[in-house]
Design a protein that fits this description.
Blueprint lengths: L6 H52 L3 E6 L4 E6 L5 H6 L9 E4 L5 E6 L3 E4 L2 E6 L8 E6 L5 E6 L6 E6 L1
Antiparallel strand pairs: 1-2, 1-6, 2-3, 4-7, 5-6, 7-8, 8-9
Amino acid sequence: MHKGFTILELLVVLVIISLATAFLAPRLLSPNRHLQLKTTVNKMAGALRYTSNMATTAQKSMAVFIDIRKNKLWVAPAADSDESVVLDNTEKHRDGLSNYNYPEDIVFFQEYSVVENSSPDGLVVYFFSDGSCSGGNLVFGYHEGPKYNIAIDFITSIITVERYG
């Protein structure tokens, strides 16, 4: 009687481990991707809330610019912001701007309501000193998989995040 395993038994075990890894790895990595999207959308919503508070506190209209092509979001005083100039010069650092680069694989899908398209590559949401804003809905997500809607109430500037579709 021989003690130990045959080469065939070892190969069968390796095939089983390989198959288990192939099926389990995507399931284990998928929640991280979903978490990254949810975190990014919550950071964007936080930037929008920050801008709303800043506009009412400073009694000065503010704008949030979202460059869809470069996956960048930033805040600027609305009076200083000519959209075409600001969208073209996003690489320049200007004092007083809050910038946020979001991951490249997160895609902007659609917007509706009164969010203003400042160019084919960008959007602008305005927040006014009286607590109102231009409002609208922004949908971000992956090409395949979950998407999230950032809803901005135009009267109260209340910003909510909800899963879309």
